[in-house]
Amino acid sequence: MEKQDQKSILIYETREEKLISPKSGKPITRIARILNPFTNNVSQAVAANGGPRSFENFPESLQQWKSRVSFRGRKNPPRKWKEWVDQLAEKYSLLWYQLGICDAILSSMYEVFPNRELVLGLSEFWCEETNTFVFSWGEATVTLEDVMILGGLPVVGESAMSPLTDDLMELEMRLKEERLKLVHSKARKPRQTAWLNHFMGSGSEFEHLAFLTLWLSRFVFPSRSDTIGQHVFQIAIHLSRGTRIALAPAVLASIYRDMRLLRQLASITCSYKIAFSGPLELVQLWACERFPNLGPNCNALQPGEPRVARYHKLRWNLTHPQVKLSLKSPTNFLWRPYAVNLTNWRHLAYYNESEEKELDVHSGLDDDVQSYIVCLQVSELVGVDCKENYFPHRVAMQFGLDQDLPGDVSDVHFDTGNGKIFIPARSFEPGVSTRYFNWWKEMMMARHDKIENNFVHGGVMNAKASPLLTEEKNVEDCHASGASGSMKSLSEEISQQSGDGDELTISMVTSKSRKRKTCADFGDQLHLIEPTREIVVRDDEMKECATHAVESKGRNAKSLCAVL
């Protein structure tokens, strides 16, 4: 229902405008298509705030965190997985296509090796307030379109958090029972390989549900330690019953959350290794597509292969200076990589070679065009365990539209029942308004001055180090509250334990003085790892993380930044 204090606006507006080409830098006057919300007033433009985003002059101690970060999100397909996919495809391929997950399931059969330097280099430019990369030449980000194309996941559908009806809750109970059997087995954990071996080839209707559960747990919303996570049960049940679920927004929410966490961890002096299990491989693929000089020599696509096949089993080396140098140059960036001709790649329906389209917005549009419309709208992304803001109007050129000053997103409601939608030709080159060009240039100059001022006055060099991370006890799972947020303080003790052994208490170890207790909303998929032991921080079932404060012993007591 539309709120009374909301203003209804069209997705984009058309007007004559003086624009500057991102390639040539030359101004040209033509009809511009500007993505809403925008503003004509520089004083009302919403800047990418948050302080300096450059580590170029930071002390070495703040750069060492990179050596402690690893990524475990993209798991290799387990043995027999391809065989199971082939078996079920004979019966369910049409359903997968209707659900919009056919390419995503195919993608799960390919291996993508992580490139740490690429993702970590990008994280230095991340702005937590806008969920965008803030480069000296402009803003860019991973959008719903990127997740749809690179991950093969649907943008349109019911929410990933859609509840189950009473009749479907019986299936959820059945899944929990099957999972509990594995917990009580010799392995004492619901291992994904055991799940596969148990259900593969059973021939029952439940086999398909078990298949979707494993696929979601391993490849879409990865579970820790290769286990079956209860957090995907509802989604798997909906999919098995033919309900299309918008998986792309939920996955993008987790990506934004993890990128925020990477930025926050840069300011923490940490004695532990940190491993992410989230889908940050999509950030890596995004970078390879948009900064081709940072990617490998890609495989040739075969007919019918998903986009991820280009990167199957490829390894390549990058240095941090190489990444930083490339990210600083606008000529290295492709605003519309999916519009480029690629052998054996089927362009989405809205990508036309030379014909521009202006379509009436109505419910009869095909899935590709409906997805494109959703990709253009400011929204709140609802994930399995988090919520994040989505601001495509700040990166309009990634959709082939022109960029103007980004406006205020509060109290904005899009009128998608009326009006038209403009779909540019693949050959179309978008531009930025002269207002935006001058505004961005002045903003970057101000930020550069701020960085210099910080160092002149010792603001960064003399900053006190954040508390060290230490271990109070080994933890199996931590289930967070799910609200996105930045670093925050704990002022009370919270304690909760589950009965099935999946939830264990996490301790917040404060400094000896207990003057400040700080924790990060690390979200779903973070592991804190000591060389010989592992502290796990996860959120499978979206329950509140159990924490309690204890005082560490010794003169050099450390403090653990635990996760809610």
UniProtKB/TrEMBL annotation:
Under Gene Ontology molecular function, one entry of this record is: transaminase activity
Q: Which Pfam families match?
A: PMD
Name this polypeptide is given: Aminotransferase-like, plant mobile domain
Q: Which UniProt keywords apply?
A: Aminotransferase, Transferase
Organism (species): Dillenia turbinata
Keyword flag Transmembrane:
no
Which PANTHER family does the record match to this protein?
PROTEIN MAIN-LIKE 2, PROTEIN MAINTENANCE OF MERISTEMS-LIKE
Gene Ontology biological process terms, A to Z: meristem maintenance
**UniProt cross-references to InterPro entries, sorted A to Z:** AminoTfrase-like_pln_mobile, MAIN-like
Q: Give the Aminotransferase-like plant mobile domain ranges.
A: 100-440
